[in-house]
Amino acid sequence: QVQLVESGGGSVQAGESQVLSCAVSLYTSRSYCMAWFRRAAGKEREGVATIDINGRTKYANSVQGRFTISKDSAKNTLYLRMNSLKPEDTAKYYCAADRGWCETDSLRAEYAYWGQGTQVTVSS
Of 6, 38, 18, 35, which is closest to residue 84 (Cα–Cα)? Predict the structure, then answer.
């Protein structure tokens, strides 16, 4: 059973940076596709970024160039660094994992394991 626990959320001002972390109970980076999703109030869930077994990354157009997904094998942790935050980035952020290589459309794929989420609020 894979358990994912997010941390690092909170309230920030527009233009500031924030780093989210996701602690993984079993280190899965070597055999799992890892991802960050978000869901804003009243909106559908959105794939934000994914990182494949080999470290290849993919980003949503809305965060390309501002967000960076990474993983640390030694710390069993997935990260999402968010720069130049905007009010429209306000959402609950979730990390997710699924066994094997990421699907071609990894930002829209289904994932087997999910964390509970952490809220990020960006004020203008």
Answer: 18
φ, ψ for residue 29, nearest 5 deg: -65, -25
- Residue 30 pLDDT grade (very low, low, confident, very high; cuts 50, 70, 90): low
Q: d(Cα 81, Cα 44) in Å, to the nearest integer?
A: 22
Q: Where are the beta strands (DSSP E) in 1-124?
A: 4-7, 10-13, 18-24, 32-39, 46-51, 57-59, 67-72, 77-82, 91-99, 113-114, 118-123
**3-state secondary structure at position 94:** strand
pLDDT of 118 > 90? The answer is yes
Tens digits of per-residue pLDDT, 38-71? 999 999 999 999 999 999 999 999 999 999 999 9
Query: Mapping DSSP to helix (H, G, I), strand (E, B) and coil, where does residue 3 land?
Result: coil
Neighbours of 34 (CB within 10 A): 26
Please give the Cα distance from 61 to 73 (Å, whole number). Answer: 27
Distance CA 105, CA 2 (A): 22
Count of beta carbons in the 10 Å neighbourhood of residue 18: 18
